[in-house]
Amino acid sequence: MDRCVVRQAIKDVKEERIVGYELLFQGGKDSLYNNNETSAADTISNFLLSNSAKIINDKPMFVTFTPSLLLRNTPKMFGQEKIIIQIEDTVIIHPLAMPIIRKYCDNGYQFAINDFQFSPKYFSMLDYAAYIRISMAEYAPGSPKQKTAVNIIQMARGFGKKCIATNVDTKEAYDSAVELGVDYLEGSYVANTLVSKVDKVEYMQGNFFQLMVAVSKDEPDFMEVEEIISRDAGLTYQLLKLVNSAYFALRTRTASIRQALVTLGIGQLRHWVYMLSFDQEEHPGSEELLKISFLRAKLASEIAGMIPGRKFAAADAYMMGMFSTLDYMVNAPLKELLDEIPVPDEVKVGLLTGEGIPGKVQKLVIAYEHADWKSSKELAEELGIPSKQLAQIYVDCVEEVNNTWNNLMTDVEA
To answer: What pLDDT is recorded for position 298?
Structure first.
């Protein structure tokens, strides 16, 4: 069995910010948790032991623990502020459930109950739980079960618990969850709502700060400037749009960041950065969306590099992943945005049509991000990539994104 792991963001409904992530292992019928309990515990424990520092960063991680994992003290690999212990039926019916949970609570750990149900065994755990999780797949819009969801949320609020709606994968599910009055949202549709669309492209303040420092040097290092811009979808898009505008009247349009910098020159580069500094209004969620674009770019480039025969350039795959969130940020169709800059045909094909090798790479990145393990495995096989390697590639990409953002935040705070 392939080991697959991905993290999904959990968004605060009122404050429009990411409060944590859920770490998902496999999913659906193929869930590790549906297999032999000891085997599942071994797989999850080994993964966490090898990769916890890579994937767990500044925000709490919600992880479902089996009875064996709890008895092995696996959550104690992490500080209480780093992990939220999720429990489900296998723990609740365990004969040692109450003493196990009480022990962790006494040590300062918080609990979340997965797929809460109205039954005595679930109510017995309420005193220890900080979060109640309900699946919008079960309480879909228009479902006769929605009244049950309302009762659960009202009950949770009465007991001072926060309610998380999971499987928020469509606009209908999102609107329904908000109307129900949940506190937090999790699912593949959440990324679409992180930023209110505006008429300009967002970029990260910390990244922009590093860019300002780099171009302020007596002799700016173009390789350093290129690296800073290449990890930010907003800066990349704005640079390419500027250099390919009528002002520069280039005979050949360029999709290369390095060539764009050479075209600008030091003086024009500094002027461009100076002009951008007058428009530094940040919108809630923009940081998380830029993280998503950076992670997609890294993952797409790694996947492209593994395809036998190198049928899709890693640099083009990187740009495809980076620009895959543009239509989330800007109030314009993605095709219209891509038409304004000379992106390679492969990038347009992957983003707009989903056809060919580029399209399969893009679909694989999104399927994996959405924890669609079945599609991920099928697409990986079609591309000639061992699907069992995806988990480690994903985790390594997450680590690089985390490290980059930690450095950005350190620079800004300093």
So the answer is: 92
Question: Within the chain, which residues score under 70 in pLDDT?
Answer: 1-3, 27-41, 195-206, 209, 246-252, 274-286, 331, 407-414
Q: How far is CA 399 from CA 41, 54, 391, in A?
A: 23, 5, 12
Q: Domain 5-193 maps to which CATH number in 3.20.20.80, 3.20.20.450, 3.40.50.300, 2.40.110.10?
A: 3.20.20.450
Q: Mean pLDDT score of the chain, rounded to an integer?
A: 82
Contact 27, 371 (CB under 8 A): yes
pTM of the model: 0.77
- Residue that is written with structure tokens 């999709």 in the block: 255
Of 193, 198, 194, 192, nearest to 279 (Cα)? 198
Could you give the angle at the alpha carbon of 175 between the alpha carbons of 169 and 179, nearest 5°?
Answer: 130
Q: Where are the domains of the chain?
A: 5-193, 195-414
Distance CA 306, CA 4 (A): 17
Q: Are 399 and 55 in contact (CB under 8 A)?
A: yes
Alpha-carbon span 312 to 156, nearest angstrom: 50
Residues 201, 326, 187, CA angle at the centre, nearest 5°?
120
For residues 156 and 122, is the Cβ–Cβ distance under 8 A? no
Task: Give the C-alpha distances (Å, rounded to integers) separating 98 from 92, 93, 128, 256.
Answer: 8, 10, 9, 59
Same CATH topology for 5-193 and 195-414? no
CATH tag, 195-414: 1.10.3210.10
Judge contact between 206 and 291, C-beta under 8 A. no
Tell me how far apart the alpha carbons of residues 132 and 123 are, in angstroms, rounded to a whole number: 11
